[in-house]
Amino acid sequence: MNKYLERLVNGLFKENPTFVLMLGMCPTLAITTSAMNGVGMGLSTTVVLIASNVIIAALRKFIPNTVRMPYFIVVVASMVTIVQLLLQAYVPDVSEALGIYIPLIVVNCIIFGRVEAYAAKHSVGLSLFDGIGMGLGFTVALILIGSFREILGAGTWFNIRVMPESYEPISMLVQPPGAFLVLAMLTALQNKLKLPSATNGSVKKTALSCGGDCANCKGEVFAMNHELNTKEPQKEKSAGKED
Predict the structure, then answer these.
(1) How many other CB atoms sit within 10 Å of the CB of residue 146?
(2) I need a surface site. Which of 152, 179, 198, 205 has the fewest CB within 10 A?
(3) What pLDDT does 2 receive?
(4) Which domain holds residue 88?
(5) Residue 237: pLDDT over 90
(6) Is residue 211 part of a domain?
(7) Is residue 84, in this structure, part of any structural domain at all?
(8) If you ran DSSP here, which 8-state letter would residue 233 be given?
(9) Closest to 49 (Cα-Cα) out of 5, 4, 114, 98
């Protein structure tokens, strides 16, 4: 498979940030009261993810390892600010509906996970497609959850009536408890069908996912991060001795 196409498939299916890696649960549960909200949040996050990946990949060789996290925060926060201002200017209804969750994209673990685990180590082209794949995977997941909650909880889909007038909406599904209930049902379905998910230990261990085997966790991800953090100081000491 073409390596660029593989990044798209990876984000949509193999490592879907919501259904497989179980990342970004806060906005996923909070704003999916409707399919339209899912589109707004998903596309906003996608734009930030793509822009951040490209910028960090382009400058990855110039970023000292010891200050990489502050650098990532500045880049992501700048992209989020731009997206927020554009939403307020051109689609104020969407901006109002998403509210505080637009600025909170700054601390979305999906964004930092991808820039740290992928963009900081790969080329601009691959990082671009990785951002597109992960962003679309997140968007599809939000639309799916939002659609389920909106149809059963309000009888509409994208604000269009789809259920008969006699249908009695399950109003709890568009309330906070409904978000947990729907996600639990979809996750249970994944496990029943034996699909990859961080909840059943079927996810390959990566820098972003431990594989879901919490009972036997030995901290592999933390060990990898520790090794990465200690490499740079050791290099600096070696260089100092040579001088």
Answers:
(1) 28
(2) 205
(3) 85
(4) 3-201
(5) no
(6) no
(7) yes
(8) H
(9) 114
**Could you tell me which residues come within 8 angstroms of residue 183 by beta carbon, excluding any fewer than 6 positions away?**
25, 28, 29, 145
- Residue 217 pLDDT greater than 70, yes or no: no
Q: Which residue has the tokens 């049902």?
A: 185
Which residue has tokens 């991808």? 114
Whether residue 71 lies inside any domain: the answer is yes
Number of domains in the chain: 1
Task: Answer yes or no: are the C-beta atoms of 225 and 206 closer than 8 Å.
Answer: no
**Tens of pLDDT along 125-153?**
999 999 999 999 999 999 999 999 999 99
Q: List, in sequence order, every residue forming a beta bridge with 160; answer none if it has no partner.
A: 157
Q: Please report which helix (H) or strand (E) contains residue 156, including its range.
A: strand 156-157
Q: What is the DSSP string of 67-80?
A: GHHHHHHHHHHHHH
d(CA 98, CA 33) in angstroms, rounded, equals 11
Dihedral sign of CA atoms 151, 154, 159, 162 in order: positive
Helices 124-154 and 109-117: crossing angle in degrees, nearest 10, is 160
Decide if pLDDT at 226 tops 90.
no
- Asked if 24 and 146 touch (Cβ cutoff 8 Å), the reply is no
SS3 224: helix
Residue 212 belongs to a domain: no
| Both structure tokens of 197 | 């998910």
Each as own residue / partner, the long-range contacts of residues 123-127 (CB below 8 Å, 24 or more positions apart, any chain) are 123/57, 124/54, 124/57, 124/58, 125/4, 126/3, 126/4, 126/7, 126/57, 127/53, 127/54, 127/56, 127/57
